[in-house]
Amino acid sequence: MKKLDDLKLIESKDRSRMRNILQKLPLQCQEAFRLGKNFSISQEYSRVKNIVFSGMGGSAIGADLISFYLRKEIKLPIYVNRDYSLPAFLNQDSLAILLSYSGNTEETLSSFERAEAASAKILVISSGGKLVELAKKNNHPYLVIPAGYPPRGALAFLFFPSLAILSGLGFIEDKQREFQETITLLEKMHDNSLDLGVPESANPAKKLAARLFNKFAVIYGASENLAGVVTRWRGQLAENSKSLASSQLLPEMNHNEIVGWQHPEELLQRFVIIFLRDEQDHPQVKKRIEISKEILQKQGFAVEEIHAQGKGLLARVFSLIYLGDYVSFYLAILNGEDPTPVKRIDYLKQRLRDY
């Protein structure tokens, strides 16, 4: 029996039960979308001229995904902020959406103060903490999402409410049809190919995790649709698998990084290249990926390709996210790690409080 088909081994390593969060992603998405659709917000917010999301880590990835998912549809500029400060253009005509799953992220709390100083229209999405307290105190709308998840495990609650709210404000079309396709696809992926009980021979996530074991993953994707997905893969490998990985986007990668695949030669032999592919990648980017693969494979590098599933962009994006989340989970098991704890982040936060 292969290691990843040993359910007792998986359960012994996954002591904090990350598997339950992964299994329930379709249900989380449904609850999150409903929360956003039922959220009432003043139509005054529909008159803004730009949107700034502010968050960190697992809380900010939802904003990344929204900004690229909507880039061909929404007429307003969207900026994703990962810092203590906010851009100088923020003013009374800006919508500042502050995302902090815990509600206590110090960078996002700082951003809240700066958004208030700029007289921006503020919306808070959080499970509680100081951020919700500040929103209440200062009479800003806030949406409380379910608590009890690690932030990266709450992606559905940090993505779908924002999507539904932007639709309700009239910035984008209603996404009910694309959303339903996404849920159906995720349920099918879970049951037929990703779940723990699906053997490695038929489980693409287990296969890729085994391929990445004791290797360094380099993740590439097209910037047009998959920038947020590439970032998600890298972050999940870091937090769940406790494995360092890198990521870069095309076509930018062809203007610099492609040259770097030469030294140090011995170290590079332990790298595995993953191309995340979408059927709607720009035609020139498709050509660039094929040529890049040719260059890299001629040098003897291992190259894996993952193709998005589904018809709509939302389904295609989340098909890659769901697969990547499971890959990071199974790689954690092979690494002998519990996927959920992030002790170094906890230590760093404590040191900052004590500094």
Describe this structure in words.
This protein has 355 residues and is of the alpha/beta class. It has 2 domains: 18-174, Glucose-6-phosphate isomerase like protein, domain 1 (Rossmann fold), CATH 3.40.50.10490; 198-334, Rossmann fold (3-Layer(aba) Sandwich). It contains 14 helices and 9 strands. It has helices spanning 7-13, 18-23, 25-38, 57-69, 106-117, 129-137, 155-168, 176-194, 204-212, 223-239, 265-268, 283-298, 313-334, 343-354, and strands at 50-54, 78-81, 94-100, 121-126, 142-144, 216-222, 245-250, 271-277, 302-307. A 5-stranded parallel sheet has the order 2-1-3-4-5, sandwiched between helices. The longest helix has 22 residues, at 313-334.
SSE inventory with pairings:
Blueprint: H1 7-13, H2 18-23, H3 25-38, E1 50-54, H4 57-69, E2 78-81, E3 94-100, H5 106-117, E4 121-126, H6 129-137, E5 142-144, H7 155-168, H8 176-194, H9 204-212, E6 216-222, H10 223-239, E7 245-250, H11 265-268, E8 271-277, H12 283-298, E9 302-307, H13 313-334, H14 343-354
Parallel strand pairs: 1-2, 1-3, 3-4, 4-5, 6-7, 6-8, 8-9
Helix pairs in contact: 3-7, 3-8, 4-7, 4-10, 8-13, 9-13, 10-13
